[in-house]
Specification:
Layout (H helix, E strand, L loop, with lengths): L1 H48 L22 E6 L5 E4 L14 H9 L1 E8 L4 E9 L5 E9 L1 H43 L14 H47 L5 H32 L8 E4 H18 L3 E6 L3 E4 L1 H17 L6 E9 L2 E8 L6 H4 L11 H6 L6 H11 L3 E7 L3 E7 L1
Parallel strand pairs: 7-9
Antiparallel strand pairs: 1-2, 1-5, 3-4, 4-5, 6-8, 9-10, 10-12, 11-12
Helix pairs in contact: 1-3, 4-5, 5-10, 6-7, 7-10
């Protein structure tokens, strides 16, 4: 990052130097041209005021003006274009000047000027012609460098200046980059300290986002650590029971009557272990980032009817009545996941119910929202426990949950699936009166 900032600052400096050099050269040349033209006008007027150039019968040969500047060319031209005098060439050897633009303009308007470029000498010749009182034309001319020649002659000095400025800019860019980056590096090293404000107010949203992500990562790490510890504990319990019962049977330390009981316990703990592993796998699949469920149009009522019909057998063993009411309710979602929600909620309602109790499943549309509601008249959940029942491995009644085969992951799975469907979950419960769980799609 530092290198990029330095390079870009140097690039800006170079661009600024080149642009300034070109602009200054153009402006300077414009002023130079203006000055040359003013000098030619002044020279022509001074020569006119000397009255050396006055047409009469005897003065043609007498005119011999020294300009004092060998670069200034003076030409005296008759009204018909004939050259009467030239300070550089013999007048007789020069061609007729009647077609010269500056001469034509002077004869018509009183004065004229033009610039002719020399491709061979890389020079510009500036001409100024002035009409005299006797009808003749006095022309003065001066050779001057063109803008390209001036620029290339000044190039060595320009390059030296550019090099000097670049050295200064490199030092300044290094200092500026250091001043800019140092506070950011300091903030990065203490990103967890929320008491320290970012060095620049523009970094406030970025810092807040990083801190939030950092907190989320730490929270997720703690959740995973707790989950791993809980999984180990939950798996260890049935495995210990299975191992213990198997060891007793293997060593023939129990009679045949007790063996049957131990075999049933082994089967019971094996089923619980398989259920626990199955729920863990489901949670792992739901936790996988980037995994998107395949949504399709489905009818919640039909899915609920299938689930209720399947779970009635389990409910009958506890003398619990399970009913379904409502109407057809279609939405886009994952059928398997919706079935998982209903299975978990109804199984919990049966597991934590009293013998002879009721479980009511309702599906419908309320104020344009799709509603799935599972209600029971079981043991209920205290206000303190209601905030944590959707945590992994959290049980309201631990002894009863393990006795009835609960893993403590059912409501965590429900919450995860609800979030994947952009739905919201409501819980209303009271100890000794029952629980109502509503899911709004």
């Amino acid at each position: 990052m530092k290198q990029k900032i330095n390079i870009r600052l140097l690039a800006i400096a170079i661009l600024g130097i080149l642009t300034t050099t070109i602009c200054v050269t153009v402006i300077y040349y414009s002023l130079f041209v203006k000055q040359v033209k003013n000098d030619l006008v002044t020279s022509a007027q001074l020569l006119r005021d000397t009255h050396y150039f006055a047409k009469n019968d005897n003065n043609d040969a007498k005119v011999d003006i020294k300009s004092g500047d060998e670069e200034l060319r003076i030409t005296w031209i008759d009204s018909d274009g004939t050259v009467l005098y030239d300070n550089e060439y013999e007048a007789k050897t020069l061609p007729n000047h009647a077609d010269r633009p500056e001469v034509c303009e002077a004869l018509n308007d009183g004065e004229g000027e033009t610039v002719r470029k020399s491709d061979t000498q890389n020079m510009n010749t500036f001409y100024y012609a002035l009409l005299l009182e006797d009808g003749t034309v006095l022309r003065v001319a001066l050779d001057a460098e063109n803008i390209q020649t001036m620029f290339f002659k000044a190039m060595p000095m320009i390059l030296c200046i550019i090099l000097l400025i670049l050295i200064v800019c490199a030092l300044l860019s290094h200092m500026l980059t250091k001043q800019l980056i140092t506070p950011i590096e300091a903030m990065a090293s203490s990103i967890e300290d929320t008491s320290k404000e970012p060095p620049y107010k523009e970094l406030m949203p970025f810092a807040n986002m990083i801190r939030k992500q950092h907190a989320d990562i730490l929270s997720a790490a703690r959740v995973r650590q707790d989950f791993t510890a809980n999984v180990s504990h939950e798996l260890k319990t049935p495995l210990t029971a299975i191992s213990g019962y198997a060891e007793l049977i293997e060593n023939k330390m129990v009679d045949e009557e007790r063996q049957e009981h131990f075999i049933k316990e082994i089967r019971k703990n094996s089923d619980r272990l398989l259920t626990l592993i199955d729920d863990i796998i489901k949670l792992s699949e739901l936790d996988q980032s980037g995994t998107k469920p395949r949504f399709e149009e489905l009818d919640i009522y039909d899915v609920a009817a299938e689930a209720v019909e399947t779970l009635k057998v389990t409910a009958m063993k506890k003398n619990i009545h399970v009913s379904l009411s409502g109407e057809s309710c279609k939405l886009m979602g994952s059928k398997d996941m919706i079935r998982e929600i209903i299975d978990n909620l109804v199984q919990n309602a049966i597991r934590y119910n009293n013998e002879g109790g009721n479980v009511r499943v309702c599906v419908g549309t309320v104020n344009g929202e799709k509603l799935l509601c599972v209600e029971d008249d079981g043991i209920g959940i205290s206000k303190e426990d209601q905030e944590r029942v959707f945590e992994r491995f959290y049980r309201v009644d631990k002894s009863r949950s393990r006795e009835t085969g609960g893993t403590g992951l059912g409501l965590a799975i429900v919450k995860h699936i609800v979030e994947l469907h952009d739905a919201r979950l409501e819980l209303d419960s009271e100890l000794g009166k029952g629980t109502i769980i509503k899911i709004w799609f």
